[in-house]
């Protein structure tokens, strides 16, 4: 009697040790809807029979080479009778749960929790408007057609957009709000949606941001500081302004508009009458804003030195009459030779 109790106790201890040492390893966890899932035992034991269940619902039982699948999993569940591995096909969200394998020969009970998620699909991006004035607010929203427990990330070009002083993220980061849009917030923006089993990215979206004109610059002959030039010079005045869309540029001299538009004004062979204030005026037709910049230009007289008079030796003065007589006689002699 004592030997029999000892044998039962020993079998119980071995069963507990075997049961506690066995782990259930899912082929993927979490798993995606529509995928197949295999639950394997490690280490693999020699089980002559047993059962699989999820929660309180039996999936199948087996004994030797025979197995029987319960109606709720008919056509989707099979067991490898050699290894006790369970395979489920065409997973659904309802397949999430705690899976339990049991056996009485030898005694075994092990379990694992499995999560089934729906993949993210059809990621799209929407905006409250596409044309924005600088410093106005903007709102972007990321949408998905399906997907369990999605997370969201935002990108402007290749840079990730995170919450800071001008940007807020809400609704699990699916909504991006820009409190004051800058000229550098045009995009392209993309929304990246993901969960542990899948991900997707929206098509790019860009804002048209109108701004300016501002930050004007005016150069003369490509020089920022030079303001004084000599008469006869050719001058090219170049004007620029930061503006979106590009600003209309007009030129004025002495407070009066010139018949000149565009970024460049050319002056040929300037003189002192060209001295005075030159202004470039910029106007943005979208923002209805204007800006201007003025540079005073001074045209000075030419610095070319006057020619020096030729000098004459004083000792030749007394001989001037004789030189005149000789030159006259020489002229007459030349005439006689010519007449002959």
Provide structural commentary.
- This protein has 2 helices and 28 strands.
- The chain is mostly beta strands and 340 residues long.
- A 5-stranded antiparallel sheet has the order 6-5-4-9-10.
- The model is unreliable at 1-17, 305-318, 320-325 and 334-340 (pLDDT under 50).
What is the CATH topology classification name of the largest domain? Answer: Immunoglobulin-like
**Helical percentage:** 10-25%
CATH superfamily of the largest domain: Immunoglobulins
Order of helices and strands: HEEEEEEEEEEEEEEEEEEEEEEEEEEEEH
- List segments where confidence is low: pLDDT < 50 over at least 5 consecutive residues: 1-17, 305-318, 320-325, 334-340
Number of helices: 2
Numbering strands along the chain, what is their spatial order in the largest sheet?
6-5-4-9-10
Which CATH first-tier class of the largest domain would you pick? Mainly Beta
**Global Rg:** 48 Å
Structurally, the number of domains stands at 3
* Overall 3D form: rod-shaped
Average pLDDT metric: 87
Largest sheet: 5 strands, antiparallel
Question: What is the fold's blueprint, element by element?
Answer:
Elements: H1 2-21, E1 23-26, E2 31-32, E3 37-42, E4 49-54, E5 57-63, E6 66-69, E7 77-80, E8 85-88, E9 97-104, E10 107-114, E11 116-117, E12 124-127, E13 131-133, E14 138-143, E15 151-156, E16 159-161, E17 167-170, E18 175-178, E19 189-195, E20 198-201, E21 208-220, E22 228-230, E23 235-244, E24 248-253, E25 256-261, E26 264-267, E27 276-284, E28 289-300, H2 320-339
Parallel strand pairs: 2-11, 13-21, 22-28
Antiparallel strand pairs: 1-3, 3-8, 4-5, 4-9, 5-6, 7-8, 9-10, 12-14, 14-18, 15-16, 15-19, 17-18, 19-20, 21-23, 23-26, 24-25, 24-27, 27-28
